[in-house]
Amino acid sequence: MSGISQVRHYILRDLKKDGAYIEDISKMTEDQRQNLIAFTCLLHHPKDNGIYCGITAFDGEILWRFDPKLKSFTCLNYGRVHEPFEVKIHRSLTLAANGTIFGASACLYSVNDRLRAPGGAIFRLAPGASAPEKLAIPVKHDYIQAIALDEKRQLVYGLTYPVFKFFVYHLDTGEVEDYDFVGSITHISAIDDAGCFWGTWDVVKHNLFKYDPATRQITWFHHGTPEAAKEANIMYPGAGPIDVMINGGDGYLYIGTTGGSLCRLDPRTAAVEYLGHPAPTRRLPGLVAWDDDLLLGAGGDEKGGFVFTYSRKTGAVRRLGSIIDSATSLYLYRVHDLCRLGKTNTVYVAETDVPTRSGYLWECEIDI
Question: Which residues pair with 201 in a beta bridge?
Fold first, then answer.
């Protein structure tokens, strides 16, 4: 029978005192600065079988590797290249065929610090390297919430915060195409089979847009996901409704929304089809293609972390269970990302925004 057979959580750092939530990061205690972390993005590396973790960390060590066999973390020394405003890697880790990891840095600064902040950096971590290498700051002052890699065309697409901008960075030449303010942002975007990047625009309607690298032109559509206006502003003020977007490998892009809905986007027509609402709560930021039929998703907000499958052949949604530690009964607070350990039945879930402690890395054994 389908379900979650085992759940474990792993602690990288943990706040030693109660009260993890802070309103002003400039007034953080030393305990908070060192130990208040969250897991924000995950990437499985097939060459070394590690889980690469982008985290929020106020000391600048925002990149780590988790060994699934040893159950241990290794620091990847982002602190050697960081500047003070780089405090997290949000949804910005992606993998090239040669094993190089590309990523980007994000911020949590207040607006009064904006002009002092250099801007988010695109970086790479080569196989065997002891620390990342910065490649560029594509947009001054703004930091990078999400990237997508088009290795064939040597392009990195990026979306920025706190001003929602869209840019294209050319890895081979260093050129930046800066399309500036688009008025909306996805949690993570995707590239379709034709090589086009999809995002959202407009501060109210959060419509879809498509960037075509062949023409360097943007198509601005005048529709979005079915409940776009209603589901906007859930992640943070101004953010759009798209919590996750993946290329399903079947010609379609699949979308999880901040309201907990699952949708399918046909890149040939830009039509968006509502598929269902697998989430008992808001947020659906984790989605991977499990096989030719199933999608595996993770969502949930405020103690509601859960895992589900969606059948592309039948349209059936099956909830596999809640993410609660099998030994301690500790619950996952808020899902932020999901990745699968190769072709195994083990998945990892990133946890963020816990109001009373640090976020943890969660391991789930799935029976499908």
Answer: 207
**125 found inside a domain:** yes
Asked if residue 127 has a cis previous peptide bond (ω within 30° of 0), the answer is: no
- Does some domain include residue 257? no
Please, are residues 263 and 208 in contact by the beta-carbon 8 Å criterion? no
| pTM for the structure as a whole | 0.97
Query: Which residue, among 94, 77, 68, 76, has the nearest Cα to 10 in the 3D structure?
Result: 68
Name the token pair of 155.
Answer: 């392009």
Note the pLDDT tens digit of each residue in 353-365: 999 899 999 999 9
Quick one: three-class SS letters along 296-357?
EEEECCCCCCEEEEEECCCCCEEEEEECECCCCCCECCCEEEEEECCCCCEEEEEECCCCCC
Residue 114 belongs to what domain range?
37-181
Among 220, 314, 230, which residue's Cα sits nearest to residue 270? 220
CATH of the domain at 157: 2.130.10.10
User: How many angstroms separate the CA atoms of 323 and 34, rounded?
Assistant: 27
**Distance (Å) of CA 246 to CA 8, 119, 325, 356:** 26, 27, 28, 32
Looking at residue 85, the DSSP 8-state letter turns out to be T
| 137 inside domain | yes
DSSP letter (8 states) at residue 195: S
pLDDT in tens, 290-339: 999 999 999 998 888 999 999 999 999 999 999 999 999 999 999 999 99
